[in-house]
Amino acid sequence: MPELRKDPIIGRWVIISTERGKRPSDFEKTPKKKESKLCPFCPGNESMTPPEIKALRPDGSKPDTPGWTLRIISNKYPALKIEGDLNREGHGMFDKMNGVGAHEVIIETSDHNRDLVNLSEAEIVGVIEAYRFRYKDLKKDPRFHYIMIFKNKGEAAGASLEHAHSQLIATPIVPKRVSEELEGAKRYYDYKERCVFCDIIRQELSDKERVVVENEAFIALEPFAPRFPFETWILPKKHYASFEKTPEEDDLKLASLLKETLMRLSRSLNEPPYNYIIHVSPVDSEYDKEYHWHFEIIPKLTKVAGFEWGTGFYINPTSPEEATRYLREVDVKNTAPEQQAELVH
Amino acid sequence: MPELRKDPIIGRWVIISTERGKRPSDFEKTPKKKESKLCPFCPGNESMTPPEIKALRPDGSKPDTPGWTLRIISNKYPALKIEGDLNREGHGMFDKMNGVGAHEVIIETSDHNRDLVNLSEAEIVGVIEAYRFRYKDLKKDPRFHYIMIFKNKGEAAGASLEHAHSQLIATPIVPKRVSEELEGAKRYYDYKERCVFCDIIRQELSDKERVVVENEAFIALEPFAPRFPFETWILPKKHYASFEKTPEEDDLKLASLLKETLMRLSRSLNEPPYNYIIHVSPVDSEYDKEYHWHFEIIPKLTKVAGFEWGTGFYINPTSPEEATRYLREVDVKNTAPEQQAELVH
User: Fold this and answer.
1) What do you get for the CA distance between the two ends of chain A, in Å?
2) Residue ranges of A 90-119 with Cβ closer than 8 A to chain B
3) What interface predicted TM-score (ipTM) does this complex get?
4) In a 3-state reduction of DSSP, which class is residue A53?
5) Would residue B341 count as lying in a domain?
6) Strand B13-16 relative to strand A314-316: parallel, antiparallel, unpaired?
7) Which helix (H) or strand (E) holds A196?
8) Residue A310, class by beta-carbon neighbours within 10 Å (0-12 exposed, 13-18 middle, 19+ buried)?
9) HEC assignment per residue over chain B
């Protein structure tokens, strides 16, 4: 059973996922050559994954058989386990609890050779709907306080399978950085009676220096104090604390902006590995006025990891204004090589 | 001029180091093949670095010429600049200040082919003395609130040169994670009237499950809630808030424990890239009773970077108890291959 453990100094919870238990020899120094193994996320290999929670099956085929265009499953190697109660326990000055939670995978397309950025806007709307469905469903489980959806793209960004997918982790605790954002947003609201994210959007629209792209409902921008080069946020222009509260009629606008932002990053930076994380208000939130959901997209470009992990002190070699200029200027109108390839086959 | 910028939501300062300004094409996807370039840290190449601040020269040779065994210089590409005042400035809701600070390099040995772990205990004492000298000297500059010494070993850990070296950054702000530790330690002290780190040492010595190695003055342990596999801390057993307050007569004991800890990590994990960061109390500290300086050593073994950066939520696949067993069991008595190599040439 995985364990949640609390650091006694700063109070951060970590997951010790003992069943993934890694021995020293499991940490490889140089990445293995790609083996042409069967992909468990490809149609025809449905039996290699846990049974599907839901799938988009335009052809009305049976569960766990081919025919789907998007598929939601439990993670075969979950960091947290869905069964059991939240037993809290102390040992001297140390605190821990059972690693209860949900860990799911959203397979974004049946096509092994396409990534999210290459899907049509309508297909990306399907991914957004899948996210909303999982948020709404898992919010009913009283054991979970936070639902986090994220995407690792590329081996350097932590993806262990290359077939396009997002992940979801539901936890009995609120992740540390989200707590800090909630506290910061609340402090700002208490002082100004305005949402800090709404104020950021207003100032960025007036400054015009860090806005990458926008439409009626969403904005993509480089934050004023980014930790990483080309770190990019996407926010709804209207104030919604959680992803699933944004109305469905805006889904196509989000799909369109997400696709264009990912394409601009991909073209500017030569298809970089990246992570995105959707920051939302906790389940049963008291932060409806103060918090404002958003995507944080982090291209994996630099390696100065341990130092920055260890100190929380980031040195960013590219100013957000400069990153914005590159992202704005890149040509996304002409057909991309990967799309040309698609047209061919 | 580099800039310090403050995130308006959570209040974290970042360095935007514009003079290192990276264009998209500067971020390489695959690391370059090692070029056999001249190493600026090797004897004979002293003119390739800024003039030395100090060096150990057992042969009494002139500054910036060969003969040294340890050399302290300013970083040629500093993240912060030593000249100038701390001008704070606002722009709408955003805050920034001049990137004033010190950025130095401690070249730990003149031998390009040895790392810290291969130095003799007496040579490591020289490195410790160099650290103390810089802490004491830079504490006199009233612009600096924090002095951070760290080491990046290996390209994957962010080292741009392979010749063994540590770095020092002095900043006008306290890094975020250190602030959190200070606050946590203060909260604990206010409640218990004891140092939380002293209590951790007491409990670990009694539990015996996570102590890697110890001597009269220092202890190396795996923390109860580690973020990373094989994360290892070294603490003085007696309570000292800052590195330079530990008495000089303990230097040899620290050198001995640091060498043995690094050797155990190196042997268990096949010479992994790693970072260490020395956590100390801020300059002009009010945390003398509450804070307890320590090394945090983080081998770079996993890649799940962006997600964990983005959330502060860590999934660790190796329990600290298991890591401790591996580190204790590994043989460090027999001569290491790299030391055999040294004996040969």
Assistant:
1) 46
2) 92-94
3) 0.86
4) strand
5) no
6) parallel
7) helix A196-207
8) buried
9) CCEEEECCCCCCEEEECHHHCCCHHHCCCCCCCCCCCCCCCCCCCHHHCCCEEEEECCCCCCCCCCCCCEEEEECCCCCCECCCCCCEEEECCEEEEECECEEEEEECCCCCCCCHHHCCHHHHHHHHHHHHHHHHHHCCCCCCCEEEEEEEECHHHCCCCCCCEEEEEEECCCCHHHHHHHHHHHHHHHHHCCCHHHHHHHHHHHHCCCEEEECCCEEEECCCCCCCCCCEEEEECCCCCCHHHCCHHHHHHHHHHHHHHHHHHHHHCCCCCEEEEEECCCCCCCCCCCCCCEEEEEECCCCCHHHHHHHCCEEECCCHHHHHHHHHHCCCCCCCHHHHHHHHC
Quote the pTM value: 0.90
- Residue A28: inside a domain: no
As to burial, measured by CB atoms within 10 angstroms (0-12 exposed, 13-18 middle, 19+ buried), residue B329 is exposed
Token couple for B295: 């090394």
Q: Which residues of B are catalytic?
A: 165
Domain membership of residue A103 as a residue range: 3-22+36-339
Q: Which residues of B touch A158 (CB under 8 A)?
A: 302-307
Q: Which residue of A156, A318, A326 is in closest CB contact with B303?
A: A156
- At position B287, the amino acid (one-letter code) is Y
Number of structural domains in chain A: 1
Q: Provide the residue-wise pLDDT of chain B in tens; the chain has 345 residues.
A: 789 999 999 888 899 987 666 677 777 655 555 556 799 999 999 999 999 999 999 998 999 999 999 999 999 988 888 888 888 889 899 999 988 999 999 999 999 999 999 999 999 999 999 999 999 999 999 999 999 999 999 988 888 899 999 999 999 988 888 899 999 999 999 999 999 999 999 999 999 999 999 999 999 999 999 999 999 999 999 999 999 999 999 999 999 999 999 999 999 999 999 999 999 999 988 899 999 999 999 998 877 556 677 677 888 989 999 999 999 999 987 655 554 444 443
Q: Which residue on chain B is closest to A168 by alpha carbon? A: B307
Collapsing DSSP to helix, strand or coil, A337 comes out as helix
For residue B131, give the nearest of B265, B242, B292, B297 by alpha carbon: B242
Helix A251-268 vs helix A320-329: angle between axes, to the nearest 10 degrees?
100
Residue type, A271: E
Closest to A316 (Cα-Cα) out of B159, B277, B14:
B14
CATH number for A12: 3.30.428.10
CA distance B311 to chain A (A): 5
One-letter amino acid at A211 equals V
Domain for residue A92, yes or no? yes
- B326 assigned to some structural domain: yes
